[in-house]
Design goal:
The chain has 278 residues and is an alpha/beta fold. It is built from nine helices and 13 strands. The chain has one domain: 3-Layer(aba) Sandwich (Rossmann fold). Helix 3 runs parallel beside helix 4. The relative contact order is 0.15. The structure holds NADP nicotinamide-adenine-dinucleotide phosphate. NADP nicotinamide-adenine-dinucleotide phosphate binds next to helix 1, helix 3 and strand 5.
């Protein structure tokens, strides 16, 4: 039986993806501070701890490692993303596992979209720099896939960004939605199925896995507000961003993924129509 090890099973993506993995795989997963998974093979693991990562993965001997764990906390972002990924790559090399890594559209400066898989990263913030460095580390492993993705959302559990904005509005804090930042949000179910499809797929290298529809962050947020019935919008401002530490246009070209994978990469409006509430 093929063994899969999923780092960050407790992440937003991991919580959706793990239940979708077919029974033909023996699944192991890791969490750091939230053991909400109730999985028999769930391991507490700090990716910054090289010895712990090595021991954990040596004991599992996975055929496939899906590396989802990360951090956007300034205090440990670099250590979790860069060092953690280095430790995962070292362990993957030792047990000759196939490695699938989740990267981001935030590795780009947003000035020359659309970006295909050959586009060179030029990050403009710490998160983007750490993820771009992690990509370079993953590239040193022969059997690796780097998935570049965009805003991840679902219709059963609210995504991080929408939850943060709902909380701000509930606390009477103003929020600003940017009308000049372009992204291709991806439905968490599509991204999960695409990751699983890649477990025993022949594809290697970088793959842009994003939804088919390009939206401004403001237009995406409004769709999510409508879906989640967040109606208290008095303190919402929509305007252009003038900050230079968040890239403006991060549109990714997903033609290669659409040709290579069976999983459909629906746009937001298609997902909302497919899941229309009764
Ligand atoms: N969310 C998005 O819109 C988006 C967009 C582009 C790319 N991505 C990438 O997709 C992946 C999943 O994103 P997500 O938003 O679903 O993640 P998330 O919900 O923020 O979860 C982060 C995960 O990393 C784990 N983690 C944090 N610190 C750790 C440490 N020191 N050692 C081991 N694990 C640690 C957390 O474990 P605990 O919860 O147990 O502490 C959690 O499972 C990430 O690599 C992210 O960069 C996400």
């Amino acid at each position: 039986m093929m063994r899969v090890f999923v780092t960050g099973g407790s992440s937003y993506l991991g919580r959706h993806l793990l239940p979708l993995i077919p029974d033909q795989f023996e699944v192991h997963t890791s969490f750091y501070s939230h053991d909400s998974l109730n999985y028999p093979n769930s391991h507490q693991l700090d990716l910054r701890d090289e010895t712990a990562v090595s021991k954990c993965i040596h004991a599992i001997q996975p055929h496939i490692i899906l590396h989802l764990a990360g951090s956007n906390r300034p205090s440990d972002m670099a250590a979790v993303i860069r060092d953690g990924t280095k430790h995962i790559v070292q362990a993957a090399q030792k047990c000759e596992a196939r490695l699938i890594y989740l990267s981001t559209d935030s590795i780009f400066d947003g000035l020359s979209a659309p970006y295909d898989e050959a586009a060179k990263p030029n990050p403009v913030n710490e998160y983007g720099r750490a993820k771009a460095d992690a990509e370079q580390i993953v590239k040193t492993h022969d059997n690796a896939v780097i998935i570049r993705t965009s805003l991840i959302y679902g219709l059963e559990e609210m995504d991080h960004g929408t939850r943060w904005m709902r909380e701000a509005l509930q606390n009477d804090n103003p929020i600003t939605l940017f009308s000049n930042q372009l992204r291709n949000p991806i439905w968490v179910n599509s991204l999960s199925m695409a990751c699983i499809e890649l477990f025993d797929h022949q594809f290697g290298g970088i793959l842009n896995i994003v939804g088919n529809q390009v939206l401004t962050r403001a237009a995406f947020a409004i769709r999510m507000f409508d879906y989640w019935q967040i109606s208290n919008r008095k303190l919402v401002t929509i305007k252009n961003s003038s900050k230079n530490n968040w890239p403006l246009n991060c549109q990714l070209d997903n033609n290669l993924a659409s040709r290579s994978l069976k999983t459909p990469l629906y746009g937001v409006d298609e997902v909302l129509a497919l899941n229309k509430r009764a």
